[in-house]
Design a protein that fits this description.
331 residues; mainly alpha; two-stranded antiparallel ribbon; Solute carrier family 35 member B4
Protein backbone atom coordinates (compact mmCIF):
# COMPACT_ATOMS: atom_id res chain seq x y z
CA UNK A 1 0.00 0.00 0.00
CA UNK A 2 2.82 2.40 0.89
CA UNK A 3 4.56 1.58 -2.40
CA UNK A 4 1.46 2.35 -4.47
CA UNK A 5 0.93 5.56 -2.50
CA UNK A 6 4.55 6.60 -3.08
CA UNK A 7 4.30 5.92 -6.83
CA UNK A 8 1.14 8.05 -7.01
CA UNK A 9 2.92 10.85 -5.13
CA UNK A 10 5.90 10.72 -7.52
CA UNK A 11 3.79 10.83 -10.69
CA UNK A 12 1.26 13.40 -9.48
CA UNK A 13 3.78 15.61 -7.67
CA UNK A 14 6.61 15.57 -10.21
CA UNK A 15 4.46 15.85 -13.34
CA UNK A 16 2.40 18.69 -11.82
CA UNK A 17 5.63 20.38 -10.75
CA UNK A 18 6.89 20.41 -14.34
CA UNK A 19 3.63 22.01 -15.53
CA UNK A 20 3.79 24.84 -12.98
CA UNK A 21 7.51 25.36 -13.58
CA UNK A 22 6.91 25.76 -17.30
CA UNK A 23 4.02 28.17 -16.64
CA UNK A 24 6.48 30.30 -14.65
CA UNK A 25 9.35 30.00 -17.12
CA UNK A 26 7.28 30.79 -20.20
CA UNK A 27 6.46 34.29 -18.89
CA UNK A 28 9.67 34.88 -16.92
CA UNK A 29 12.52 32.72 -18.31
CA UNK A 30 14.97 34.06 -15.71
CA UNK A 31 12.89 33.22 -12.63
CA UNK A 32 14.92 30.13 -11.70
CA UNK A 33 16.47 31.73 -8.60
CA UNK A 34 13.19 32.72 -6.94
CA UNK A 35 11.72 29.27 -7.72
CA UNK A 36 14.75 27.51 -6.20
CA UNK A 37 14.69 29.76 -3.13
CA UNK A 38 10.97 29.16 -2.53
CA UNK A 39 11.41 25.38 -2.81
CA UNK A 40 14.41 25.36 -0.46
CA UNK A 41 12.70 27.60 2.11
CA UNK A 42 9.51 25.51 2.19
CA UNK A 43 11.26 22.13 2.50
CA UNK A 44 13.69 23.53 5.10
CA UNK A 45 10.80 24.88 7.20
CA UNK A 46 8.93 21.58 7.05
CA UNK A 47 12.10 19.65 7.98
CA UNK A 48 12.92 22.04 10.84
CA UNK A 49 9.50 21.40 12.39
CA UNK A 50 8.96 17.71 11.74
CA UNK A 51 12.48 16.24 11.27
CA UNK A 52 14.68 18.17 13.74
CA UNK A 53 11.87 18.96 16.20
CA UNK A 54 12.65 22.70 16.07
CA UNK A 55 16.40 22.08 16.16
CA UNK A 56 16.38 19.84 19.24
CA UNK A 57 17.28 16.62 17.37
CA UNK A 58 20.98 16.14 16.63
CA UNK A 59 22.01 14.92 13.14
CA UNK A 60 23.26 11.35 12.67
CA UNK A 61 25.79 12.52 10.06
CA UNK A 62 28.35 15.22 11.10
CA UNK A 63 27.48 18.70 9.86
CA UNK A 64 30.90 19.09 8.22
CA UNK A 65 29.93 16.35 5.74
CA UNK A 66 26.59 18.00 5.11
CA UNK A 67 28.34 21.28 4.31
CA UNK A 68 30.26 19.56 1.48
CA UNK A 69 27.13 17.85 0.20
CA UNK A 70 25.08 21.03 0.46
CA UNK A 71 27.65 23.07 -1.48
CA UNK A 72 27.34 20.63 -4.37
CA UNK A 73 23.55 20.37 -4.08
CA UNK A 74 23.08 24.15 -4.03
CA UNK A 75 25.39 24.58 -7.02
CA UNK A 76 23.54 21.93 -9.04
CA UNK A 77 20.09 23.35 -8.24
CA UNK A 78 20.99 26.94 -9.07
CA UNK A 79 22.86 26.10 -12.29
CA UNK A 80 20.10 23.78 -13.54
CA UNK A 81 17.47 26.48 -13.07
CA UNK A 82 19.68 29.30 -14.32
CA UNK A 83 20.43 27.37 -17.54
CA UNK A 84 16.83 28.08 -18.61
CA UNK A 85 17.97 31.69 -19.20
CA UNK A 86 20.14 30.53 -22.12
CA UNK A 87 17.61 29.49 -24.78
CA UNK A 88 17.29 25.99 -23.28
CA UNK A 89 13.83 24.59 -24.02
CA UNK A 90 12.14 22.66 -21.22
CA UNK A 91 12.01 19.33 -23.15
CA UNK A 92 15.76 19.52 -23.86
CA UNK A 93 16.34 20.45 -20.21
CA UNK A 94 14.52 17.29 -19.08
CA UNK A 95 16.20 15.04 -21.66
CA UNK A 96 19.64 16.35 -20.76
CA UNK A 97 19.08 15.73 -17.06
CA UNK A 98 18.02 12.17 -17.92
CA UNK A 99 21.66 11.61 -18.84
CA UNK A 100 22.62 11.34 -15.16
CA UNK A 101 23.38 7.64 -15.71
CA UNK A 102 26.30 8.60 -17.96
CA UNK A 103 27.81 10.93 -15.40
CA UNK A 104 27.30 8.41 -12.58
CA UNK A 105 29.00 5.66 -14.54
CA UNK A 106 31.95 7.80 -15.64
CA UNK A 107 32.63 9.11 -12.14
CA UNK A 108 31.99 5.66 -10.65
CA UNK A 109 34.74 4.23 -12.86
CA UNK A 110 37.16 7.09 -12.11
CA UNK A 111 36.55 7.57 -8.37
CA UNK A 112 35.18 4.25 -7.08
CA UNK A 113 37.07 2.07 -9.62
CA UNK A 114 33.83 0.30 -10.53
CA UNK A 115 33.49 -2.06 -13.46
CA UNK A 116 30.27 -2.73 -15.34
CA UNK A 117 28.77 -5.39 -17.62
CA UNK A 118 28.64 -5.03 -21.41
CA UNK A 119 24.90 -4.23 -21.25
CA UNK A 120 25.63 -1.30 -18.92
CA UNK A 121 28.18 0.16 -21.32
CA UNK A 122 25.73 -0.33 -24.23
CA UNK A 123 23.02 1.50 -22.28
CA UNK A 124 25.34 4.44 -21.68
CA UNK A 125 26.18 4.60 -25.39
CA UNK A 126 22.45 4.68 -26.19
CA UNK A 127 21.77 7.45 -23.66
CA UNK A 128 24.72 9.46 -25.00
CA UNK A 129 23.55 9.07 -28.62
CA UNK A 130 19.99 10.04 -27.69
CA UNK A 131 21.09 13.19 -25.89
CA UNK A 132 23.46 14.04 -28.75
CA UNK A 133 20.61 13.78 -31.30
CA UNK A 134 18.28 15.99 -29.24
CA UNK A 135 21.04 18.51 -28.57
CA UNK A 136 22.02 18.81 -32.24
CA UNK A 137 18.38 19.22 -33.33
CA UNK A 138 17.81 21.89 -30.66
CA UNK A 139 20.98 23.69 -31.77
CA UNK A 140 19.64 23.88 -35.33
CA UNK A 141 16.32 25.26 -34.07
CA UNK A 142 18.07 27.94 -32.03
CA UNK A 143 20.11 29.02 -35.05
CA UNK A 144 16.98 29.26 -37.22
CA UNK A 145 14.54 30.81 -34.71
CA UNK A 146 16.86 33.32 -33.06
CA UNK A 147 18.86 34.36 -36.07
CA UNK A 148 17.29 37.51 -37.51
CA UNK A 149 20.70 38.29 -38.98
CA UNK A 150 23.78 36.11 -39.21
CA UNK A 151 25.31 37.98 -36.27
CA UNK A 152 22.14 37.49 -34.17
CA UNK A 153 22.13 33.80 -35.06
CA UNK A 154 25.74 33.34 -33.94
CA UNK A 155 25.06 35.20 -30.69
CA UNK A 156 21.94 33.10 -29.99
CA UNK A 157 23.86 29.90 -30.69
CA UNK A 158 26.77 30.87 -28.40
CA UNK A 159 24.23 31.86 -25.73
CA UNK A 160 22.59 28.43 -26.07
CA UNK A 161 25.99 26.70 -26.04
CA UNK A 162 26.74 28.31 -22.68
CA UNK A 163 23.47 26.87 -21.36
CA UNK A 164 24.51 23.39 -22.56
CA UNK A 165 27.87 23.80 -20.80
CA UNK A 166 26.04 24.71 -17.58
CA UNK A 167 23.78 21.63 -17.84
CA UNK A 168 26.82 19.41 -18.45
CA UNK A 169 28.64 20.80 -15.42
CA UNK A 170 25.51 20.38 -13.25
CA UNK A 171 25.15 16.79 -14.49
CA UNK A 172 28.71 15.88 -13.48
CA UNK A 173 28.42 17.74 -10.16
CA UNK A 174 25.17 15.92 -9.38
CA UNK A 175 26.83 12.56 -10.06
CA UNK A 176 29.75 13.49 -7.81
CA UNK A 177 27.29 14.44 -5.08
CA UNK A 178 25.55 11.07 -5.46
CA UNK A 179 28.84 9.22 -4.99
CA UNK A 180 29.68 11.34 -1.94
CA UNK A 181 26.22 10.66 -0.50
CA UNK A 182 26.64 6.94 -1.15
CA UNK A 183 29.90 6.84 0.82
CA UNK A 184 28.28 8.77 3.70
CA UNK A 185 25.34 6.35 3.87
CA UNK A 186 27.71 3.38 3.95
CA UNK A 187 29.58 4.92 6.87
CA UNK A 188 26.75 6.42 8.93
CA UNK A 189 23.64 4.59 7.69
CA UNK A 190 20.75 5.88 5.57
CA UNK A 191 19.12 9.03 6.87
CA UNK A 192 17.40 10.32 3.75
CA UNK A 193 14.91 12.67 5.43
CA UNK A 194 17.66 14.20 7.55
CA UNK A 195 19.77 14.72 4.42
CA UNK A 196 16.75 16.24 2.67
CA UNK A 197 16.41 18.83 5.45
CA UNK A 198 20.08 19.82 5.66
CA UNK A 199 20.42 19.89 1.86
CA UNK A 200 17.69 22.54 1.78
CA UNK A 201 18.36 24.38 5.03
CA UNK A 202 22.12 25.00 4.98
CA UNK A 203 22.18 26.63 1.50
CA UNK A 204 19.60 29.29 2.44
CA UNK A 205 22.23 31.96 3.36
CA UNK A 206 23.71 31.48 -0.12
CA UNK A 207 20.60 33.04 -1.62
CA UNK A 208 21.72 36.40 -0.22
CA UNK A 209 24.08 36.51 -3.23
CA UNK A 210 21.03 36.17 -5.47
CA UNK A 211 18.78 38.50 -3.46
CA UNK A 212 18.71 41.26 -6.10
CA UNK A 213 17.48 38.87 -8.79
CA UNK A 214 15.01 37.24 -6.40
CA UNK A 215 13.58 40.62 -5.35
CA UNK A 216 13.30 41.77 -8.98
CA UNK A 217 11.29 38.71 -9.92
CA UNK A 218 9.18 39.04 -6.77
CA UNK A 219 8.19 42.52 -7.98
CA UNK A 220 7.47 41.18 -11.48
CA UNK A 221 5.38 38.35 -10.02
CA UNK A 222 3.38 40.89 -8.00
CA UNK A 223 2.62 42.82 -11.18
CA UNK A 224 1.19 39.77 -12.98
CA UNK A 225 -2.54 39.54 -13.69
CA UNK A 226 -4.70 38.70 -10.63
CA UNK A 227 -6.60 35.43 -10.27
CA UNK A 228 -9.10 34.41 -7.61
CA UNK A 229 -8.01 31.70 -5.18
CA UNK A 230 -10.54 28.82 -5.29
CA UNK A 231 -10.87 28.28 -1.50
CA UNK A 232 -10.36 31.65 0.20
CA UNK A 233 -11.99 33.73 -2.54
CA UNK A 234 -9.19 36.33 -2.56
CA UNK A 235 -7.42 37.58 -5.68
CA UNK A 236 -3.64 37.07 -5.92
CA UNK A 237 -1.17 37.64 -8.77
CA UNK A 238 -1.25 34.53 -10.94
CA UNK A 239 2.55 34.07 -10.85
CA UNK A 240 2.52 33.79 -7.06
CA UNK A 241 -0.18 31.14 -7.35
CA UNK A 242 1.92 29.23 -9.88
CA UNK A 243 4.95 29.52 -7.59
CA UNK A 244 2.97 28.24 -4.59
CA UNK A 245 1.72 25.25 -6.58
CA UNK A 246 5.24 24.59 -7.89
CA UNK A 247 6.64 24.53 -4.35
CA UNK A 248 3.88 22.27 -3.01
CA UNK A 249 4.14 19.81 -5.90
CA UNK A 250 7.94 19.78 -5.58
CA UNK A 251 7.56 18.80 -1.93
CA UNK A 252 5.06 16.06 -2.83
CA UNK A 253 7.45 14.78 -5.51
CA UNK A 254 10.45 14.65 -3.17
CA UNK A 255 8.47 13.01 -0.38
CA UNK A 256 7.19 10.41 -2.83
CA UNK A 257 10.71 9.55 -3.93
CA UNK A 258 11.78 9.37 -0.27
CA UNK A 259 9.00 6.91 0.62
CA UNK A 260 9.77 4.89 -2.50
CA UNK A 261 13.46 4.53 -1.58
CA UNK A 262 12.50 3.15 1.83
CA UNK A 263 9.87 0.74 0.45
CA UNK A 264 11.35 -0.53 -2.84
CA UNK A 265 14.57 -1.73 -4.39
CA UNK A 266 16.70 0.84 -6.21
CA UNK A 267 15.74 -0.78 -9.56
CA UNK A 268 12.05 -0.03 -8.93
CA UNK A 269 12.83 3.53 -7.87
CA UNK A 270 14.91 4.16 -11.00
CA UNK A 271 12.20 2.70 -13.24
CA UNK A 272 9.45 4.83 -11.64
CA UNK A 273 11.54 8.01 -11.88
CA UNK A 274 12.42 7.24 -15.52
CA UNK A 275 8.79 6.69 -16.48
CA UNK A 276 7.87 9.88 -14.60
CA UNK A 277 10.43 11.85 -16.63
CA UNK A 278 9.03 10.43 -19.85
CA UNK A 279 5.45 11.37 -18.86
CA UNK A 280 6.61 14.88 -17.86
CA UNK A 281 8.27 15.23 -21.26
CA UNK A 282 5.10 14.19 -23.09
CA UNK A 283 3.03 16.68 -21.04
CA UNK A 284 5.51 19.47 -21.76
CA UNK A 285 5.43 18.80 -25.50
CA UNK A 286 1.67 18.29 -25.95
CA UNK A 287 0.22 20.74 -23.42
CA UNK A 288 2.65 23.60 -24.04
CA UNK A 289 3.21 22.78 -27.73
CA UNK A 290 6.98 22.95 -27.40
CA UNK A 291 8.88 22.46 -30.70
CA UNK A 292 9.69 18.78 -31.03
CA UNK A 293 10.72 17.19 -34.33
CA UNK A 294 10.75 13.55 -35.38
CA UNK A 295 14.48 13.47 -34.59
CA UNK A 296 13.72 14.69 -31.07
CA UNK A 297 11.36 11.75 -30.65
CA UNK A 298 14.06 9.38 -31.92
CA UNK A 299 16.60 10.85 -29.48
CA UNK A 300 14.12 10.68 -26.60
CA UNK A 301 13.25 7.05 -27.36
CA UNK A 302 16.96 6.13 -27.46
CA UNK A 303 17.60 7.92 -24.12
CA UNK A 304 14.82 6.06 -22.34
CA UNK A 305 15.69 2.75 -24.03
CA UNK A 306 19.24 3.13 -22.73
CA UNK A 307 17.95 4.04 -19.26
CA UNK A 308 15.69 0.97 -19.11
CA UNK A 309 18.54 -1.23 -20.36
CA UNK A 310 20.77 0.17 -17.61
CA UNK A 311 18.22 -0.69 -14.91
CA UNK A 312 18.00 -4.27 -16.26
CA UNK A 313 14.22 -4.06 -16.50
CA UNK A 314 14.09 -6.51 -19.41
CA UNK A 315 16.01 -9.23 -17.56
CA UNK A 316 13.84 -8.69 -14.47
CA UNK A 317 10.66 -9.08 -16.55
CA UNK A 318 12.03 -12.24 -18.18
CA UNK A 319 12.94 -13.67 -14.78
CA UNK A 320 9.47 -12.88 -13.43
CA UNK A 321 7.78 -14.49 -16.47
CA UNK A 322 9.95 -17.59 -16.20
CA UNK A 323 9.12 -17.78 -12.49
CA UNK A 324 5.39 -17.66 -13.23
CA UNK A 325 5.71 -20.39 -15.90
CA UNK A 326 7.71 -22.56 -13.49
CA UNK A 327 5.03 -22.13 -10.82
CA UNK A 328 2.29 -23.12 -13.27
CA UNK A 329 4.21 -26.24 -14.34
CA UNK A 330 4.75 -27.19 -10.71
CA UNK A 331 1.00 -26.97 -10.13
Amino acid sequence: MNTLFAIVLVFVGCCSNVVFLELLVRDFPGCGNIVTFAQFAFIALEGFIFETNFGRKKPHIPLSNYVIMVTMFFTVSVINNYALNFNIAMPLHMIFRSGSLIANMILGIIILKKRYSASKYLSIVLVSVGIFICTIMSARQVSVEKGGTEEDGVYAFMHWLLGIAMLTFALLMSARMGIFQETLYKKYGKHSKEALFYNHCLPLPGFILLSTDIYRHAVLFSQSSPVEMPVIGQSVPVMWLYLLMNVVTQYVCIRGVFVLTTECASLTVTLVVTLRKFLSLIISILYFQNPFTAWHWVGTAVVFLGTLLYTEVWSSIRTAVRGEKADKKAE
